[in-house]
């Protein structure tokens, strides 16, 4: 079995060899390591992407907006992902970002996962009918099994999830009430001796 | 009184970093301290009469076991090479996580001797190989088998029976990734398992030499005197493979240097020095001179450094002995300021190391701060502005920005990875091919390029916008934001200049390992000795922490 360290190093070097700058290659190395750690096919997708890149000049998107449409060829997942990560602080006010056609979109995913950590919000990434919930770069929840290769994501969208409870207030109260059963009724003498007792706070 | 941390523009110059010496912070010393109360055992000793076969040693505490598995093989004379391009060695080793099963040993027997072309598993933590110093090893076998101890003078000239030529860890060749083990308290300090491997290999060399001598002459042979063993270490040949590490791990480098600088600052801030502490400082200082006078090297470069060090130290010791009053306030601060004024870099850093000796209370808490969670600082804060980035560059790289990279001598060399062994190398870009495949280690040049380019952009522009069309400088933008938080994360020198001395980079790293007797064999590789004078495993439970200065050599 290859170690994650080997995976990162080889991904970084191969990205440089494929023509990316060292700075971008470092990002790709970290990303492929992350995909493999989360059980997603990083190495396979990167390999297929590089093979395709030899034949196709994928479109590079620089400034990301809420609707991103290609002019001819699919977006390069690495440049799209990198700029999404770099620009995410100014993008989050848009609530949702859509991309038309990203090549090998699994390579876009780790950039979005890291962006989730940067802004402190969960992101919902949809690649056609596949959905991924990116949890602050700590974990990824997916609705589909780990397929080998997704060559093109025809409709890719990212929603910024607000930091809101996933439950009703009544559900919280019910559980809180149950948790109170671990508390002990305090005696009068205990109350008298508690922090701040016998002092005036108007001093 | 508050003392400032030393200026990174001075401390992070290569000539200064290349003058560092071992100290109480060094990893081999902190390893011994951590593992002194672990149970040491020789679990398997299966060598033939010539010393070939398998040996297993272990350290155990509670449920945790680390096992060193050694494979000793026959090596023909013409097969023995210390160079990284070698494919066979006298012995090969791996540190296994837990107790190896027979199946594990069988698996490892096929892989470990192959080193870089073998495959290890997540159950293995470190990997290494070593060659005999044949002249010394044979002399010891010959002597012991005749019932006499070997010539100590001959041994002291070399200082070891075996030399390792590489010690690998952290996921190389399938070894366990650091994330699997990083939360174990006993390995909070950097390179602790690499140190364990080297330490146990040292014990293997003694056990093997005794075994071979005994088999040669069972009736007459004696064991190597433990006192002689103690004064033998493990040699190491180190080349450029180690150099890029300190550039590629900026926050780790910072944490090593920051620990050292914090220690010095705290010691200089001590108002009243206790007599027992000043006495210990003086004792260590005087005893340590032996380590310098027995420092053999044919390198003229190093000989000159040793000569200057010895000269400076003699003057310093004379003053300390005859004129200096330790009862005055902030005595160590006064000593430090005197050194800055009167001594060379080797001597300053030597005495800085010595100043740490009395202060466990200062040093011990710093040891666990010397690792780094590098991932935390990888993302670039792209919401920052060009002005902020420019300010960082002007503040943190002021000397670097003065270098003229249009001059050939400042752009002479390039770092690359060799195809045959995947090892870092340095070459002249105007003579050799391959500079288009240069590694991102020309930090000074690229920082200067970044700074020049930034002046063409609006100060208020944010970094995300700047990076859109300037991704070729992304790696140094990242570094600039790292150095903002970690002042000692960057070597303040030009690593591609004509006058670079790469062994200064090796020396820096090896000093933190705790190596002694740096012996440069060229400007690109050197030999060192580790654990010379260290307690033997069976002596660990009750050993003198200042063993470094008690060596007979």
Task: Provide the structure class of chain A.
Answer: alpha+beta
**Helix proportion of residues of chain B, in percent?**
40-55%
Shape of chain B: globular
General form of chain A: elongated
How would a textbook summarize the main sheet of chain B? 9 strands, mixed
Greatest interface and its residue counts? A-B, 27 and 36 residues
Counting helices, strands and paired strands, the structural category of chain B is alpha+beta
Helix fraction of chain A by DSSP (H/I, runs of at least 4): 40-55%
- Report the span from N to C terminus of chain B: 40 Å
- In what range is the share of β-strand residues of chain B? 5-15%
Determine the strand fraction of chain A and express it as a percent band: 15-25%
User: Please, what is the average pLDDT of chain B?
Assistant: 94
On the 0 to 100 scale, the average pLDDT of chain A is: 93
Strands of the biggest beta sheet of chain B: in what spatial order? 1-2-3-4-5-6-7-11-10
Which spans of chain B of ≥5 residues are poorly predicted at pLDDT below 50? Answer: none
Q: Please report the total strand number of chain B as a whole number.
A: 11
Quaternary state of this entry equals heterodimer
What labels describe this entry?
heterodimer, A: 203 residues, alpha+beta, six-stranded mixed β-sheet, 6 strands, 42% helix, B: 553 residues, nine-stranded mixed β-sheet, two-stranded antiparallel sheet, 11 strands, 14% strand
Description:
The complex is a heterodimer of chains A (203) and B (553). Chain A is of the alpha+beta class and 203 residues long. In chain A, 42% of the residues lie in helices and 17% in strands. Chain A is built from seven helices and six strands; from the N terminus they run H-H-H-E-H-E-H-E-E-E-E-H-H. A six-stranded mixed beta sheet of chain A has the order 1-2-6-3-4-5. In chain A, helix 4 links the parallel strand 1 and strand 2. In chain A, helix 4 (77-91) runs parallel beside helix 5. Chain A is elongated. Among the domains of chain B are: 36-131 and 163-224, no CATH class; 374-485, no CATH class. Helices cover 41% and strands 14% of the residues of chain B. In chain B, helix 10 (250-268) runs antiparallel to helix 15 and helix 13 packs antiparallel against helix 14 (345-355). The radius of gyration of chain B is 24 Å and the shape is globular. At the A-B interface, helix 1, helix 2, helix 4 and helix 5 of A face helix 18 and helix 19 of B.
């Amino acid at each position: 079995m290859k170690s994650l360290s080997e995976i990162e190093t080889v991904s970084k070097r191969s990205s440089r060899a494929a023509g990316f700058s060292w700075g971008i290659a470092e990002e790709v190395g970290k990303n492929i390591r992350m995909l493999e750690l989360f059980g997603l096919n990083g190495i396979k997708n990167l390999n297929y992407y590089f093979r395709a890149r030899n034949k196709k000049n994928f479109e590079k998107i620089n400034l990301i907006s809420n609707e991103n449409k290609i002019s001819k060829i699919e977006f390069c997942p690495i440049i799209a992902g990198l700029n999404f990560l770099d620009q995410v602080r100014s993008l989050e006010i848009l609530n949702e970002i859509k991309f038309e056609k990203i090549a090998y979109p699994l390579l876009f995913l780790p950039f979005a996962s890291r962006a989730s950590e940067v802004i402190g919000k969960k992101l919902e990434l949809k690649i056609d009918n596949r959905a991924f919930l990116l949890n602050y770069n700590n974990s990824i929840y997916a609705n589909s099994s780990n397929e080998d290769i997704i060559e093109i994501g025809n409709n890719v969208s990212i929603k910024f999830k607000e930091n809101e409870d996933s439950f009703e207030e009544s559900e919280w109260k019910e559980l809180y009430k149950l948790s109170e059963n671990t508390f002990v009724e305090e005696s009068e003498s205990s109350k008298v001796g508690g922090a701040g007792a016998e002092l005036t706070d108007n001093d | 009184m508050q003392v400032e941390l030393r200026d990174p523009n001075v401390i992070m110059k290569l000539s200064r970093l290349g003058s560092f010496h071992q100290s109480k912070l060094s990893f081999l010393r902190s390893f011994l301290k951590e593992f002194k109360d672990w149970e040491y055992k020789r679990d398997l000793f299966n060598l033939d009469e010539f010393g070939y076969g398998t040996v297993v040693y272990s350290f155990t505490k509670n449920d945790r076991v680390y096992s060193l598995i050694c494979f000793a093989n026959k090596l023909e004379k013409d097969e023995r090479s210390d160079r990284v391009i070698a494919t066979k060695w006298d012995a090969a080793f791996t540190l296994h996580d837990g107790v190896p099963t027979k199946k594990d040993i069988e698996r490892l027997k096929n892989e470990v001797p192959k080193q870089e072309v073998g495959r290890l598993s997540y159950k293995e933590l470190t990997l290494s190989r070593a060659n005999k110093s044949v002249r010394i090893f044979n002399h010891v076998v010959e002597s012991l088998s005749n019932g006499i101890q070997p010539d100590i003078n001959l041994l002291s000239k070399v200082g070891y029976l075996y030399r390792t030529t590489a010690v690998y860890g952290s996921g190389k060749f399938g070894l366990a990734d650091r994330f699997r083990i990083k939360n174990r308290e006993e390995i909070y300090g950097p390179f602790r398992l690499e140190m364990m491997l080297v330490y146990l290999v040292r014990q293997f060399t003694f056990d093997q030499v005794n075994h071979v001598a005994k088999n040669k002459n069972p009736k007459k042979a004696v064991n190597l005197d433990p006192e002689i063993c103690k004064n033998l270490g493990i040699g190491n040949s180190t080349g450029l493979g180690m150099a890029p590490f300190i550039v590629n791990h900026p926050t780790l480098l910072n944490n090593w240097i920051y620990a050292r600088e914090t220690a010095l600052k705290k010691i200089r801030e001590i108002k009243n020095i206790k007599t027992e502490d000043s006495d210990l400082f003086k004792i260590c200082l005087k005893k340590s001179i032996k380590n310098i006078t027995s420092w053999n090297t044919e390198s003229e470069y190093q000989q000159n450094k040793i000569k200057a060090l010895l000269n400076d130290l003699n003057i310093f010791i004379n003053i300390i002995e005859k004129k200096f009053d330790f009862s005055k306030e902030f005595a160590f601060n006064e000593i430090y300021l005197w050194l800055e004024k009167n001594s060379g870099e080797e001597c300053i850093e030597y005495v800085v190391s010595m100043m740490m000796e009395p202060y466990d209370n200062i040093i011990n808490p710093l040891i666990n701060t010397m690792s780094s969670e590098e991932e935390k600082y990888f993302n670039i804060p792209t919401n920052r502005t060009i002005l902020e980035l420019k300010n960082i560059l002007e503040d943190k790289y002021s000397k670097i920005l003065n270098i003229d990279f249009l001059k050939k001598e400042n752009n002479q060399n390039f770092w690359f990875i060799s195809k045959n062994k995947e090892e870092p190398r340095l070459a002249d870009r105007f003579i050799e091919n391959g500079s288009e495949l240069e590694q991102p280690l020309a930090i000074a040049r690229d920082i200067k390029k970044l700074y020049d380019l930034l002046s063409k952009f609006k100060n208020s522009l944010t970094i995300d916008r700047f990076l859109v069309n300037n991704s070729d400088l992304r790696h140094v933008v990242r570094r600039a934001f790292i150095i903002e938080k970690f002042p000692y994360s960057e070597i303040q020198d030009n690593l591609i200049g004509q006058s670079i001395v790469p062994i200064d980079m090796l020396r820096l790293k090896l000093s933190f390992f705790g190596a002694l007797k740096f012996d440069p064999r060229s400007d690109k590789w050197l030999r060192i000795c580790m654990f010379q004078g260290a307690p033997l495993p069976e002596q660990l439970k009750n050993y003198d922490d200042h063993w470094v200065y008690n060596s007979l050599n």
